[in-house]
Amino acid sequence: MTVTSDRQTAKRDQILKGAMTVFLRSGYAGTSMDRIAAEAGVSKQTIYSHFQDKEGLFRSLIEGETLSRFQAVFQIDPHHIDPETLLRRLADIYFTQVVDHSHYVPLLRIVIAESERFPELAKVFIQTVAQRGKQLLCEYFRHHPELNIRDPEAIAQIFFGSMVSWVILQKMLHGESSIDLSRDRIVDQLIELIVEHSTRRKTTEPD
């Protein structure tokens, strides 16, 4: 990497850091490029040399805070692992590498709050962790017909959708104070439902 590219990367990171501060403080609608420039200590021209617009900047933040932390998922070889181990590893990576990071829940709160006026934000979020994880799980189910999963996409949606729902209820709506339901219990039951369902179908279907 050259000195110039190092400087460009450092400047981009500086902009993203400033943008994160402003987005979390003011929300998406309340954030302007002027405010980001002031927070990051750069000119608007510098921002536009790295990002096309505010949406592109927010997209980069979401990708940096979700997809980059979810990369460990794509290092899993889904063809040589049993379903229970795969599901547990997917859940562990999602919770420990993504959800437990300090910026994930605040960013998700912005996405949900602004999704009606700016539906593209929700699309960006869905296309990162949820969609990528679903694709990997669907591929796994399709390569393992012995599991008898008739609708891989629906099962993958149930798995990831349940985990996202837990985050919203427990972390965003403060359900932890009134709903005694740990994420380990959710994951254990999801895995049991999927694995036992496939096992039960194998034993009940005629040869």
In terms of structural class, how would the helical and strand content be classed?
mainly alpha
Q: Domains counted in the coordinates: how many?
A: 2
Number of helices: 9
Distance between the termini: 60 Å
CATH topology of the largest domain, which one?
Answer: Tetracycline Repressor, domain 2
Q: Note the run of SSEs as H and E.
A: HHHHHHHHH
What helical percentage do the residues reach? over 70%
Q: Label the CATH architecture of the largest domain.
A: Orthogonal Bundle
Instruction: Classify the beta-strand content into a percent band.
Output: under 5%
Largest sheet: none
Morphology call: elongated
Radius of gyration: 20 Å
Uncertain spans: none
* Number of E-state strands: 0
CATH C-level name of the largest domain: Mainly Alpha
Average pLDDT, all residues = 87
Tell me what the structure shows.
27% of the residues are buried. Helix content is 71%, strand content 0%. The chain is mostly helical and 207 residues long. It folds into 2 domains: 2-52, Homeodomain-like (Arc Repressor Mutant, subunit A), CATH 1.10.10.60; 64-197, Tetracycline Repressor, domain 2, CATH 1.10.357. The chain contains 9 helices and no strands. The chain is elongated.
Q: Could you list some keywords that capture this structure?
A:
Arc Repressor Mutant, subunit A, 9 helices, 71% helix, single chain, mainly alpha, 2 domains, 207 residues, elongated, Tetracycline Repressor, domain 2
Mind sketching the topology for me?
Elements: H1 3-26, H2 33-40, H3 44-50, H4 54-67, H5 83-99, H6 104-114, H7 119-142, H8 152-172, H9 183-204
Helix pairs in contact: 1-2, 1-4, 4-7, 5-7, 5-9, 6-7, 7-8, 8-9
